[in-house]
């Protein structure tokens, strides 16, 4: 007789991530591949990180600081918050898991706007709770529909803002009004993985923590800071929320190199601006080129763009891979003719448009 898993796990499909560089190289016999499917930072990370890692090599035999003291102090200063309002995770995945493990149990409901980050559904099901899906409206989280979906069983509301995979940003006033009218016994999670890519003035959500003790902000070092391989993110919330989440957080869950890299990254404002400027310039380039091709797209507040190829996006994805570029089909998001492409270097972006023109205009679409 086979060993049985927990009943709740039988409802879960394993999370499917973007294809890796090595797997594509092996499968397609390629020696050079550019990955633009995982919303990673193609510019890389700050040179400050390289120096910090090299300087830390002599301490590799010691356990990491469980409290992430240096990073905690730096972020507290950056956002003018209490250091005890921070919790650290092995990337956003772990932080999202902490939220579910802390606040969800059998019979509870969590509200998820779809399509959005798929891990919200996984962690809800892991806790034997029920995901309540609310469709986007015009590619954007529909706050009124989310509010209408609240029941006496609702425990957590997940809001990805800006939203992945669409790149849309919520209106500031509507978001504030929504937070204000949701019951204080419901946890509102604002997943702000892409917050640093927003242009212009936008609501500083860190200032809301003292007013709303049911609000959790989730942020990451994987995107604008280019530290995806280190796996480090953080949550900001009322100290009582943080104390509860720390009950499920494993001891020493953030490795020492990740802590050093994050601290170094925060100290390099110039590199951050280079990444942000490249993102802005690249998105403008995509808008211009897609307009010339007559293709619809969603204006993005993230480091990726979602657009309609008008063709089978799985076929489009494979045609790109054959040419050494990994992109993301929109099929899994419910957009069968759309693709999501991460912002790359300027050379990457130019090549993407060249391939797109070639595939759409010069290649017979057989599928």
Total strand count, please?
A: 13
Largest sheet: 7 strands, mixed
Superfamily (CATH H level) name of the largest domain: Type I PLP-dependent aspartate aminotransferase-like (Major domain)
The amount of helix comes to: 25-40%
Could you say what the CATH architecture of the largest domain is? Answer: 3-Layer(aba) Sandwich
CATH level-3 fold name of the largest domain: Aspartate Aminotransferase, domain 2
Q: Low-confidence spans: pLDDT under 50, at least 5 residues?
A: none
CA gyration radius, whole angstroms: 21 Å
**Strand share of the residues?**
15-25%
**Quick one: CATH class of the largest domain?**
Alpha Beta
Spatial ordering of strands, largest sheet: 2-8-7-6-5-3-4
Described by the principal axes of the CA atoms, the overall outline is globular
- Counting helices, strands and paired strands, the structural category is alpha/beta
* Cα separation of the termini: 43 Å
Question: What is the averaged pLDDT score?
Answer: 96
Continuous helix count:
12
Number of domains: 2
Helices and strands, in order, run as HEHHEHEHEHEHEEEHHHEEHEEEH
Subunit structure: Homodimer.
Protein name: Histidinol-phosphate aminotransferase
InterPro entries: Aminotransferase_I/II_large, HisP_aminotrans, HistidinolP_aminotransfase, PyrdxlP-dep_Trfase, PyrdxlP-dep_Trfase_major, PyrdxlP-dep_Trfase_small
Family: Belongs to the class-II pyridoxal-phosphate-dependent aminotransferase family. Histidinol-phosphate aminotransferase subfamily.
């Amino acid at each position: 007789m086979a060993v049985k898993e927990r009943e709740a796990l039988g409802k879960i499909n394993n999370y499917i991530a973007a294809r890796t560089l090595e797997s594509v190289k092996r499968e397609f016999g390629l020696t050079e591949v550019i990955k633009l499917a995982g919303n990673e930072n193609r510019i890389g990370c700050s040179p400050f990180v390289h120096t910090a890692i090299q300087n830390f090599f002599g301490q590799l035999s010691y356990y990491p600081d469980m409290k992430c003291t240096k990073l905690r102090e730096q972020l507290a200063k950056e956002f003018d918050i209490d250091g005890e309002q921070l919790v650290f995770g092995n990337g956003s995945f772990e932080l999202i898991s902490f939220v579910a493990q802390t606040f969800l149990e059998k019979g509870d409901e969590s509200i998820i706007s779809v399509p959005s980050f798929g891990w919200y559904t996984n962690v809800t099901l892991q806790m034997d709770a029920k995901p309540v899906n609310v469709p986007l409206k015009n590619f954007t989280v529909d706050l009124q529909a989310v509010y209408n979906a609240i029941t006496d069983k609702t425990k957590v509301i997940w809001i990805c803002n800006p939203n992945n995979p669409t790149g849309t940003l919520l209106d500031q006033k509507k978001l504030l009004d929504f937070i204000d009218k949701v019951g204080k016994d419901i946890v509102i999670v604002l997943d702000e993985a892409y917050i640093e890519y927003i242009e212009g003035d936008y609501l500083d959500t860190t200032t809301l923590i003292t007013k709303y003790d049911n609000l959790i902000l989730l942020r990451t070092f994987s995107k604008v800071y280019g530290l995806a391989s280190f796996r480090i993110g953080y949550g900001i919330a009322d100290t009582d929320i943080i104390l509860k989440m720390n009950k499920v957080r494993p001891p020493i869950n953030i490795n020492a190199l990740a802590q050093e890299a994050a601290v170094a990254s925060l100290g390099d404002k110039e590199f951050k601006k280079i990444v942000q400027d490249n993102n802005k310039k690249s998105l403008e380039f995509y808008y211009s080129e897609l307009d010339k091709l007559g293709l619809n797209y969603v204006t993005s507040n993230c480091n990726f763009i979602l657009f309609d190829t008008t063709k089978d996006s799985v076929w489009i994805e494979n045609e790109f891979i054959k040419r050494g570029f990994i992109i993301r089909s929109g099929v899994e998001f419910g957009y069968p003719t759309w693709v999501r492409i991460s912002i790359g270097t300027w050379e990457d972006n130019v090549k993407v448009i060249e391939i797109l023109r070639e595939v759409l205009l010069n290649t017979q679409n057989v599928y």
